[in-house]
Amino acid sequence: MAKFVPRQRKHKVLAREKAKENAVAPLDADTNAEQIDPEERRLMREKKERMKKELQGDVKVSGKKAKRLDKYIENKLRKDENREILAKLSQSKIDTNLFTSSKTIGQGKETKRQAISRAMRERKAGVEVDEDGDEILFERPRQQDSSSDEDSEDDEPAPALAPIPAQKPASPPTEAPTAISAPQPSAAAAGSGLKRPLDLDEAGRPVLRKRQRRGGIQSKFTIAEPAKGDLEEEWSGFSSEDEGVGGAKLGSADTEEDASESGSGDDSDEDDDEEEDGESASDEDDSDIDIDSDDSSSEAKPSAFKAWATAQRNEALGFKPASESTQILDVPRPDNFTPRAAEQEPLPEELQPSVNLARKAFGVTVTRTPEIQEARLKLPVVGEEQRIMEAIHNHDIIVVCGSTGSGKTTQVPQFLYEAGYGSPDSPTSGMIGVTQPRRVAAVSMSKRVAEEMGDHAECVAYQIRFEGTTSAKTAIKFMTDGVLLREIAQDFSLKKYSAIIIDEAHERSVNTDILIGMLSRINNVRQEDQNGSSPLKPLKIIIMSATLRVEDMTQNSQLFATPPPVVEVEGRQHPVTIHFARRTRPDYVDELYNKISRGHKKLPPGGFLVFLTGQNEIVQLSKRLEAAFGGLTPASGPKVQISASEAPMEVEDIEFGDVDDFDAGEIDDEISEGEGDEDEDEEFKIEEEEGETGPLKMQVLPLYSLLPTREQMRVFKEPPEGTRQVILATNVAETSLTIPGTRYVFDCGRSKERQYDEVSGVQTYAIGWVSKASANQRSGRAGRTGPGHCYRLYSSAVYERDLPQFSEPELLRMPIDGVVLQLKSMNLSNVVNFPFPTPPDRASLRKAERLLHYLSAISAEGQVTRIGSTMSIFPLSPRFARILLPRRAIDVPYLPLVPLGVGADVDKFVYLHPSSPLAHMSPQELPEYVVYAYLQRATHGVDPTKTPKTRMHALTDVTGGQLAGLAKGTPLLTYGKPVKEVRATAMEREVWVVPYLRAEGVGGSGWPLPMKKVIEKREVGKGWVVQ
Predict the structure, then answer these.
(1) Is the CB of residue 287 less than 8 Å from the CB of residue 160?
(2) Phi and psi for 633 in degrees, rounded to 5?
(3) What is the pTM of this model?
(4) Which CATH number describes the domain made up of 370-569?
(5) Rounded to an integer, what distance in angstroms lies between the CA atom of residue 1017 and that of residue 985?
(6) Which residue range or ranges hold the Helicase ATP-binding domain (predicted)?
(7) What is the pLDDT averaged over residues 961-980?
(8) Longest dimension (CA), the chain
(9) What is the pLDDT of residues 608-638, one digit of tens each?
(10) Closest to 543 in 3D by CA, of 561, 523, 574, 516
């Protein structure tokens, strides 16, 4: 039997052919396949496999290299695909004649030149032009007489002619009177009197003046050659008051545009627009028009027409003019006539008259050296002193916005001091407080201001943790925001201060936000006290920011009931050139080393300021630079040990290990080592200083928060001669620092910031991109003393794509329970209503209060406890602070054998005296029983609610077995029932019992002592008795 062959079905063949024509999947495709890919994806996958096979070959590679190879192939295919798309797009052309330039966006009404150009382009392109376009391109000619031409000429400014010696006219020109007492009629009545008759010749035919066609672009200032007779003719004055200054008289045959515009009422406005756009052709044509009439006829026609027109207008209005010789009309005025005040633009808000007119002017004269005075006058903020001080006098709270280099940090405190703030003889005798977010900024700014104050240098001081220079003469006090917060906790009204300046408010640190909220409350308290009998003056609060992002403060009604005025000041004095990297490399520390090495060899003299993320990176890079170029040894000093609760804590203080991971999406492309070095060397060529080389030696100095103050201040000293200063700093050098000699900034674009995981409740410090505002602040460090350059280690694409515009406030990046505990420790009971600049969620605040109550940090009434006050000192989350909270030996209670008193109010416990040797032991090492020599109780303090504790002076420690042996046979010792029987007879037994130590006459069982094995005998009438 023959093999079975299935018959070919005709409809299936037709379906396959149709599917091929339509480029769709055939009907007999494998429908059981796991995935059906489009044709393009399949080709792309095959091409990728082919490239991988060609590049890799038979060599085995590691997983990391395989991933890099796959990434390279994907980038290569993507670039090829983009190249093909661009090639296809280049084949199609678009006519751009009808496109409009983007510079006209927001212009509003287009000018006449733009309208004519647009209409001509639309007509040339074949676009249907509407009636408005026809009116722009074409105008109907009108027949006018010579008098109308002359009048049209009077309304336009005469063209500039050749200078002709002018003489003063013999008599002033006559003009029709303009003062009219009759009411002004309607527009129709006024226009009917100005209608002009047609100019006719002797035969009765209309006179048409010749008109020269425009032959191209003609000069607007054509110098006409005067005739020989004109040079000898004496100038006889103006023909009318509207005619331009010039001695030569020209014919006034107007163009088509002038003829159409002569009868409208907006001639002057339209002519002005035409002159601005360069479209006015009347002045160009007048210089080329033939002069047909003589001087006498052209001089008489305008005056005759004006007289006739004035007479017709007066007749229509019913006005009878006075005599021609009258120049000034004596208009009668009513008895109650009051002249209207002259109109003028209102003054800006900061220059308005002071609200407090009773304020007495007070000033302090400061003598400065000419060099310092000259340097101050170059600062932009000095030019705004009047605006700033008027705003301070008229408002209690103001915001000053000035970019990097404006000089607001050093000059605004001096403005206040010169105006009397801080002077003991002035009405505002309180100090001027200036807060800085970092210690190095507070110390350096105080020294700089002291230098500029000249003979009043002793009035400037600073105060940071463990260090300060304040005295009785201090009028300007620089400090960190934490110092001022501690002063607020002690004195809420801040009676010692008359003005507080909060600098660098744009950083939005936790202390700054809390400080702004506290000062808004203090300002209200001082205003209420002023209304009463308190001598306190309102507190002046000046918030200074380097950016214009102040809406969170100015538009926050809970923070400030009345929005404070914002005074803007110009920014940077000197230009700073920004150099972006061609590629963003992941190992930015190694890239910084390469750039610094090349820049040190190629760049002209000038200091380097390098921004890194933490102390470990600074130490690592400084070792490499010192090994390559040499360096100076750091200043030596004795090491001291301080308590962790008293150490100054900043962002970089807590290290959670090195963070070496980076996101692959943060780099542009995988590149080979050494690629693009030639292009990068080009960025170190400075044209204006080409050929000048820098010093050969290098001085490397670190700058971070944990560095001692003496080491931090070394960056402000001049380097040795022939040495380039290289400062490796964290973001502590980002604001408020002017390092002399710094011209070049190297920015890695990253910083170590606090991040909080709401799910796990753990906060970490991770390395991430800085904001654009911070990047601009860093680049501004190079332009403080002269033109500078900023080299960024990331590309412009990364700058636009990955860097946010502003950084998120630190208050929203940390656990809110720590902030609530800090506010509670400042005796704020209701934290929910606290005026935060950027308020957190109210539910989060309530949840944080419950957590603190569970941790015994606050009481049920919301008041902070002693444990909470101790927990607030730790720079940790309250959860971790509660775990690490130590228990001191002097707070361990002991129960005395003899009670101290009777009653519920009597404290039944005694505590170790701090002078006892046992007070230095940990609670776990304290003995269970102590024999004391005597007891001591302190007197009541200021707070009547606190009861003083009873302290004991310990004599020696003792064990429970020793107490049982000492008290044996006395009424102090009793025994309990047998716990375990060892052996027993009828009259004697050996058992384990628990002895109790009890004072005589005191009820209860007493103190249980350790179990003891005793022998008991049976006695008649007594039972078992211990022997």
Answers:
(1) no
(2) -75, 145
(3) 0.54
(4) 3.40.50.300
(5) 9
(6) 389-566
(7) 83
(8) 175
(9) 999 999 999 999 999 999 888 875 544 444 4
(10) 516
